[in-house]
Design goal:
The protein is built from ten helices and twelve strands. It is α+β, with helices and mostly antiparallel strands.
């Protein structure tokens, strides 16, 4: 029986040592029963022979008041949660420590001691600060981007008028220049849209207006948009009839497939066949966008969905973009509860699969 108790105490002792918190256990006379290494490190205590001593003899005098308040409160209330204090550690750096404590009582509710736990809060606070900064950044980006759009809309509008005038007056050189201005202004507008959308996704402000829609219809609408500028391509859309209507934000999902099909076109400079297959497998709906373009390396595959990631190689030279398309695409698909995966081989082509759970037809 004694053996048993001894090994149990050993177990408790090891457990207390191994936790990532500073821990001190006191008996009913405020004498130290346990004090782990983390606690000794935080409060600069020599851990040898502290057992049995009153905590006031062990703790640096400047902290005695803090601990005695904590202990008195714990005796009255039964516990104290996260009382924050600053503690200087090596090199004079101050860290924030949250102290929590709780009274130990036996089954007859008699007080026989208390535990004090300290958690290092600096990392948590740093994380909070980063989150705040990140939010500020997203807000800033989206407000600047909106401001950039207003003059751009005028530029596009007036360029359009000038193009008409130049055409009426048969000014061919002017027409050519205006066409370039228009193309570049439109590219600029698309970049701003990408940045606004990315900021929305990152700040969790993407609001989905879901309705029951057909993925096939969305894909067909996308093909209609791109086909005018894709003479070198043959589009094949092949959807199983088994695919139900799904609860989807139509405008956002159009953006998903516009991004994927535009990439398939952009990164297949030879032209060729682009297939979009829709089918159900298991509990999921799949839409594969398959091209036979330049493909990508294993290394590129692992970064594909990162913000601003673009492959720089001979094959992609001269192909413009922001590197935001796939990050936005992934954000939208995931906001719908889906996933996106890619398979690709350098020089052979790529397949992007958008996967949605079939449950998306039932619940919003
Ligand atoms: N279908 C594809 N085939 C080959 N490479 C692709 C394909 N789609 C995307 N990529 C690569 O992934 C990068 C990121 O794509 P994306 O986020 O859409 O940005 P962007 O098209 O603006 O460069 C591209 O720059 C390109 O290098
Ligand atoms: Mg793209």
């Amino acid at each position: 029986m004694k053996e048993h108790t001894r090994s149990f105490n050993g177990f408790i002792h090891s457990l207390i040592e191994s936790l990532p918190y500073g821990i001190m256990v006191l008996d009913h006379d405020d004498r130290i029963q346990e004090l782990n290494r983390n606690f000794s490190f935080i409060f600069n205590i020599n851990i040898a022979d502290v057992k049995g001593k009153n905590y006031k003899e062990v703790i640096e005098s400047k902290f005695v008041q803090v601990f005695s308040n904590l202990i008195e409160d714990t005796k009255v209330k039964g516990f104290v949660m996260d009382r924050q204090i600053s503690v200087p550690i090596l090199g004079g750096v101050e860290i924030t420590i949250a102290l929590s404590s709780s009274a130990l009582k036996d089954k007859d509710n008699n007080f026989y001691g208390l535990t004090i736990i300290c958690r290092e809060m600096t990392a948590t606070r740093e994380l909070e600060r980063m989150r705040e900064l990140d939010k500020l950044k997203s807000d800033f980006i989206s407000s600047v981007s909106h401001d950039l759009k207003t003059p751009l809309t005028s530029i596009i509008g007036y360029t359009d008028i000038l193009m008409q005038l130049a055409k009426e007056k048969s000014l061919s050189e002017e027409s050519d220049y205006l066409k370039i201005i228009m193309q570049e202004a439109m590219r600029f507008a698309r970049m701003i849209d990408d940045i606004i959308n990315m900021a929305k996704i990152e700040s969790g402000k993407l609001q989905l207006k879901k309705e029951l829609v057909s993925l096939k219809e969305i894909v067909e609408e996308v093909i209609k948009i791109v086909i005018v500028q894709a003479e070198k391509f043959k589009f094949i859309v092949n959807f199983d009839n088994s695919i139900p209507l799904l609860l989807i934000d139509k405008a956002q999902m159009k953006r998903v497939f516009l991004n994927l099909v535009s990439n398939a076109i952009k990164y297949s400079p030879q032209g060729g066949e682009i297939r979009i297959d829709g089918y159900t497998k298991g509990d999921n709906v799949y839409v594969d966008v398959i091209d036979h373009g330049i493909g990508m390396s294993e290394e590129a595959l692992s970064h594909m969905f990162e913000k601003f990631y673009r492959v720089e190689s001979d094959a992609t030279k001269g192909i413009t973009g922001t590197g935001l398309g796939l990050a936005i695409t992934k954000g939208i698909v995931e906001a719908h509860g889906g996933t996106i995966v890619v398979r690709s081989k350098l020089g052979e082509g790529s397949t992007f699969s958008v996967i949605f759970p079939l449950t998306m037809k039932k619940s919003i």
